[in-house]
Design a protein that fits this description.
Keywords: Coiled coil
Number of strands: 0
Shape: rod-shaped
Order of helices and strands: HHHHH
Strand content: under 5%
Radius of gyration: 48 Å
Helix content: over 70%
Length: about 240
């Protein structure tokens, strides 16, 4: 029960922050317009799973950010931890927000908010109000530094790993391209040799055929001569 009350309290504080810092804040869970400029940044906001979307092309700047209710909830936790008892900057900011709808100049709004702040028990020393605002600013700056570390770690883990894989594949492709080039050169060399072999086969075949013809012709002379001598011996010598 206590946990539910704490969660409910933080959700209410988150809605309060949304209304105090963002003009015309929409209902929780709907997109909100951009917040007023402020410095940001000890617990990094939770990383919630999101549906995969199209990857941002290399060299293209990411889309402009928008107010995200999950970060509003996170900052509510950060600021609630930095909140001090009694009226402080938040009560002043709430009063100033309520005065924004009145037809007052900016300096009149701040003067009226300051008077209302003191009336509700806030310190009459403006430095106390300024110090409380700086405490919240410090808490946000510290959170920003912690969040930046988580972003850097995520980039090193995810993007760094993909970059290593990219470099490895590029190196592998270069090696394969070199092997393909070497193989093509080998194929070209072999084709050239095949052409030479084709000519050599014809040349050698002709030489062998000619040699065979010469052999048979020469043999025929010897055989013919011997047969002739045998014939004559039988004819002339008895």
């Amino acid at each position: 029960m206590a946990e539910q009350e704490t969660t409910s309290g933080l959700e209410g504080f988150g809605k309060k922050i949304l209304n105090l810092f963002i003009k015309d804040a929409p209902p929780t869970g709907q997109p909100a317009p951009a917040p007023i400029p402020a410095s940001t940044g000890p617990t990094p906001p939770p990383v919630r799973p999101t549906s995969p979307g199209p990857a941002t092309p290399v060299g293209q700047a990411p889309a402009e950010g928008s107010v995200d209710t999950k970060f509003v909830d996170h900052f509510a936790t950060v600021l609630s931890r930095a909140n001090q008892p009694g009226p402080d900057y938040f009560e002043f900011r709430e009063t100033l927000k309520n005065l924004s709808n009145l037809n007052l100049s900016e300096d009149q709004q701040y003067q009226a908010a300051w008077a209302s702040f003191k009336a509700m028990g806030g310190s009459g020393d403006v430095s106390v109000l300024i110090n409380s605002a700086n405490q919240y600013l410090t808490a946000l700056n510290n959170d920003q530094a912690a969040f930046s570390k988580t972003v850097d770690a995520a980039l090193n883990e995810k993007v760094g790993g993909l970059s290593n894989e990219q470099n490895q594949l590029q190196a592998e492709n270069e090696q394969l391209a070199k092997q393909i080039l070497d193989l093509q050169r080998k194929i070209d060399t072999n084709n050239g040799r095949l052409v030479q072999i084709g000519g050599e086969i014809n040349e050698q075949s002709q030489k062998i055929a000619q040699n065979k013809s010469n052999y048979e012709a020469t043999l025929a002379v010897f055989i013919g001569q011997i047969k002739r001598d045998l014939l004559k011996l039988g004819e002339y010598i008895k």
